[in-house]
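Handout, section B. The chain below has 528 residues.
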Amino acid sequence: MIFESPWPPITVPEQTLSEYLLGSLGDRRDKAAFIEGSTGRVITYGELRDQAQAAARGMTLRGLSRGDVVAICSPNVPEYAIAFHAVAMAGGCNTTLNPLNTDEELAHQLNDSGARWFITVPALLEKAKRVQAQTRIEEIFVFGEGPDATPFDALAAAGADPDSAVLAGVANPAKDLVTLPYSSGTTGRPKGVMLTHRNIVANVAQYLVCDPVHADDIVIAVLPFFHIYGMVVIMSACLREGATLVTMPRFELEEFLATLEKYKVTRAYVVPPIALAFAKHPSVDNYDLSSIDFVMSGAAPLGEEVAFACQTRLGCTVFQGYGLTEASPVTHICRRERTEARISTVGQTIPNSQTLMIDLKSGEPVGPGEEGEVWIRGPQVMAGYLNNPAATARTLDDDGWLHTGDVGRMDEDGYLTIVDRAKELIKYKGFQVPPAELEDVLLSHPSVSDAAVIPVPDEEAGEIPKAFVVVSEEVEEEVLKSYVAEHVAPYKKIRLIEFVDEIPKSASGKILRRILVEQERQKLEEPS
């Protein structure tokens, strides 16, 4: 059966993302859009829009054409939003990169996306220059100043005169891409997720029906803007409603708690490891967090015990949402209810969307209470994977259903509980870690003849990668861990290694990770 949304349908505005978020500022022109948490520096809504428009004109003067891809690799700073919307206003497409990625990971995304320009911060300039040599990047721009890089402010200065350039604009919000984040999808290497202006506008509108944001809200913006959760739920939905975002470039618990207290934050968007800290870390008692009304957790499942402990300790409402990059990202969200029965679910299907639960063996739809793979359909679903029709066909079918790879169960009221993943991604502190990528790195070591990587539960991180390794000659566990760490971002590092004689595989040679996962689960259940 198809599970419909309990919310009434909405009309998706036929606007570009920048028009939708910043087109009509009204009385919020002088209101703070961003506060830099560490310094107190303020960017108002008027400054955000004016600087983005000026930089967009500067980009057009410098040769940016409609459809060109611009890469942003930066921690959360107010200029991130200015650059993002400048690219969008000029008719370009943003591909957002994780600053922690290795040179080879960044080069893969830049080459695959065809990015022309690279926007970053001074601290990442050396990495940017190294990567530039491996890509088609024509120019590096920097927030502030740095050697051999063009100050981003120069773009705004060049386009400061409203008549200095005619912006290329976006001819078709339903087809023109606004962002190209990278996701591993249900399997394999990261792929470019093609998200149009309409995809993001639709998802912001859908989300705000279910979880209204108010202009007097103060929102902590510690979740990275390069991640679809931070980009859409925080950097887009909150700006649409005129809230104030307090940016942090990284999560450090004491600084995070001090920032919440200092700015009297009312809404905290988090991932499960932060919710766990709220629930259990002794430092929380040293800060006044009474201003927080809501904590929303996403990016990975939040356990019921932790959710209740967080809610009780902070005296606020804790709820969950669910989605994936390929759906812009939100597909389900809880109503903001402090009810015992719902806190462990990820909520109901958002407006203008439908959910199917598909039996993993029969491929047939199942009803309430039965487990199945979660399929999603709605205006927020991606256009496809960039230059990868085969992967697109595996994930997005002809009827518009997005096959999420997650296994869940719907109750009679349409509340979804995620119970497992058919897909093979590991979620480490909300970040995607593709097992196949780590296996490739391990297999490149001369002492490794075979390898398989699976997720294992971890209270702090949610899941950590564990490798099962077959060796051709003796090698120390720490040597292999260090080898992998040299080739991947820190969050992708192998945390556990077990040496085995053989990796279980199917007749076709596919690694049977489910067998390893089940074996690991049995070990954890056995008495020590």
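Note. Residues 45-61 form the longest helix (17 residues). Compare this with the example in section A.
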